[in-house]
Amino acid sequence: MDEFLQSFKIIINEKIYVKDPESTDLGKKIIEQSILLIHEIGIEKFTFKKLGVVIGSNESSVYRYFENKHKLLLYLTSWYWSWVEYKLVFSTNNITKSKKRLTIAIENITMSIEEDSTFSHINEVILHKIVINEYSKSYLTKEVDIENKNGYFVIYKRLISRLSMMISDYNPEYAFPSSLASTVLEGSLHQFFLKEHFPTLTDCHEPQSPTQYFTQLVLKTLK
Amino acid sequence: MDEFLQSFKIIINEKIYVKDPESTDLGKKIIEQSILLIHEIGIEKFTFKKLGVVIGSNESSVYRYFENKHKLLLYLTSWYWSWVEYKLVFSTNNITKSKKRLTIAIENITMSIEEDSTFSHINEVILHKIVINEYSKSYLTKEVDIENKNGYFVIYKRLISRLSMMISDYNPEYAFPSSLASTVLEGSLHQFFLKEHFPTLTDCHEPQSPTQYFTQLVLKTLK
DNA sequence: CAAATGTAATAGTAATACTATTATAATTCG
DNA sequence: CGAATTATAATAGTATTACTATTACATTTG
Question: Which residue of A120, A178, A207, B200 has the fewest C-beta atoms within 10 A of its own C-beta?
Answer without folding.
Answer: A207
